[in-house]
Structures are given as structure tokens and as C-alpha cells.
Amino acid sequence: MALLEVEDLCTVFHTEDGVVHAVDGVSFQVEAGKILGIVGESGCGKSVTAMSVMRLIPDPPGRIESGRVLWKGRDLLAVDADEMPQIRGREIAMIFQDPMTSLNPVFTIGKQLGEVLDRRFDLRGAAADERMVEVLGHVGIADAEQRLSQYPHELSGGMKQRIMIAMALMCRPDLLIADEPTTALDVTVQAQILHLMKQLQQEFGTAIVLITHDMGVVAETCDDVVVMYAGKVVESCGVFELFVAPRHPYTRGLLDSILRPGRSKATPVPTIEGVVPSLLQPPAGCRFADRCARAVAQCHQDEPLLATVSDKHLVACHLPLEVPPS
Ligand code: SF4
Predict the structure, then answer these.
(1) Is the CB of 171 under 6 A from ligand 1?
(2) Are 68 and 5 spatial neighbours (Cβ–Cβ below 8 Å)?
(3) Which ligand 1 atom minimizes the distance to the CA of 287?
(4) How far is the CA of 160 from the centre of ligand 1 (A)?
(5) Measured between alpha carbons, how far is 321 from 317 in angstroms, rounded to an integer?
């Protein structure tokens, strides 16, 4: 069953140079208890999509122009603004890339976690402390009681991100949106945080939207994947299908550029030549056409629409790649 259904979402930013179409007709679903990965290069609209779902787009300069964000069947874009804080945190929580900028440096961890319990649950004093220690234990923080009196600068990057996850989990949300949660962390801590998120999904049935540009993270963690390019969804399917039989040339390019063990030093890692087009005046036709080796004349004229190529596998391409022989 779909917990979250995003339908034809369009978000723009009004700038001095014109209107930037950051998210342009994006649709996807998140099923209860599943992890959906949203992947793509920087500037493809992944974070703006997440912020739009949470209704955190600063207006102005941003604006959600159209679309629907159905949360348990109810359109969040039509919900009264006063009601959104009840849904944010309690039902849908979000963690960001850099925990240092998300935590307030002048308050202790206990003060910041306690504020969540105070505001959301009217919980204070010993009962709040007990709950905080319990949740910190869940996210693998040792000496939890002692941590409550520490300031963010006294903790490592990995620990700060665990605190952020703990803060998000305080309210036992049904959906956790994690925007590049491991990018600022070293590889070992990254693995621990991903393991933790997977554990939380299994233990509490929390659905997760994981935004990342790292296909390795997707392979390890996700059930389903949405690939975004230049503000649009270009491919959407199950994680196994994505790695075994990607159908969009952009997805193929992302997969080819993964560093693999055993690659000879003499062989350069393949890259996708060129850059994501400006979303001020996106090109006509397929937005990937200038970087695509398969492009034909039609690609520069007609926009490819997202279409089903096999069960639950959608691709926006005039010439989808063949399925490799099994
Ligand atoms: Fe390449 Fe054309 Fe497909 Fe775009 S529509 S990805 S240019 S083949």
C-alpha cells in the first residue's frame, strides 16, 4: 500500500535571471515499511522534491506550482499551514546532510532532544530524560545519559548524525526522509549509519526516502529507486532491476561510473560527459540529449514521457536500453 504518493509535482524558484523549474512533473510512490532511494547528480531536484513534500520550500523565492502530495490519501499541499507542524516530525520526519548545521551549537543535546518531546508530547523532566536515553540507545549511542549534557561540538560527525536520527525518531514517524545523510561522514561511519537506518526500518516498520548520489548506498539499502535528471524522473523500478537491467542511458551512465574492485589503474573510470542543463530554460525534447550517445533527432524535439516498460518499471526514453540476456 502506498503511504506517500507524489503526483505531477512542480516546484519553481523565481530568481533575478528568471524562473528555475527545479522540480518539473515529478511522480513516485513510497510504500509502507519500504526504503525508496532517490538518486541523481547534484542539481537534479532531489532535495527540492523532499522539501516540497515537507512543505519547507521558502516562498518567496520558491513556489510549489502544481501537483499533489498524498499522505495516507490526504493532499498535504491542501492542508492548512497551521496543521503542517503536527504532520512534520510526528508523522514525517527529515534528516539532513550535515548534522553540524542542523544542531544548534549553543544548546546541549538534552535541551534539543527535550524540546521535541516537550512540544510534541508535553513530556518533561524525568520521563523525558528516560525517553531520550532510550532513543539514544536505539541509535547506538553509548553513555547516553552523559551525552545529554554535552554540546554538539563535543561529539564526532557520526555521533551527531545519530543524534539527528534519534531526534527524528523521537516521534516514531511513519516516514523518514533522509537527505544525503552520510555524505559528510567517513566511509566506516557511513556504513554504520546506513546499517542503523535499515535496522530501524526492520524494527519499527519506518518507511524511508533516502536521497543520495551514491549508487553503492542505493544497492546496499533501498527496495525501490527513482532516478532523477534535470528536475524530472527518468527511471523508476525495484533496486534489483535497476542494477541488473537499467533501461535509461542516464541510469546506465551512473552505474558505469561506480568504482569497482579489480578495475585496472590504466583504465579510467567512465564518466558522463557534460553537465546537467540549466533549469532556467531547459532544452526542448529530452533533457539528457546533449549527453546521450544514443540520441537521435526525435530526442531533441519531443519530450520522452515516463512509460511502463515492464511490471513496476517506468522509463522516460524514446530508445530504452535492451534488457541484457540472462
Ligand atoms: Fe537518450 Fe533519446 Fe533516450 Fe533521451 S530520449 S535518454 S536522448 S535515447
Answers:
(1) no
(2) yes
(3) 4
(4) 42
(5) 9
Atom of ligand 1 nearest to the CA of 298: 2
pLDDT tens over the chain, length 326 residues = 789 999 999 999 999 999 999 999 999 999 999 999 999 998 899 999 999 999 999 989 999 999 999 999 999 999 998 899 888 878 998 888 777 778 899 999 999 999 988 988 888 999 999 999 988 888 888 888 999 999 999 998 888 888 988 888 887 889 999 998 877 677 777 788 888 888 888 888 899 999 998 888 899 899 999 999 999 999 999 999 999 999 999 999 999 887 776 667 777 777 888 889 999 989 999 999 999 999 999 999 999 999 999 988 999 999 999 987 77
pTM: 0.89
| Helical (H) or strand (E) element with 229 | strand 224-229
C-alpha cell at 70: 498524498
Distance 319 CA to ligand 1 centre (A): 6
Ligand 1 atom showing the smallest separation from residue 234 Cα? 6
As a whole number of angstroms, the distance between CA 128 and CA 132 comes to: 6
Q: Is 319 in the pocket of ligand 1 (CB under 6 A)?
A: yes
State the DSSP code for 88.
B
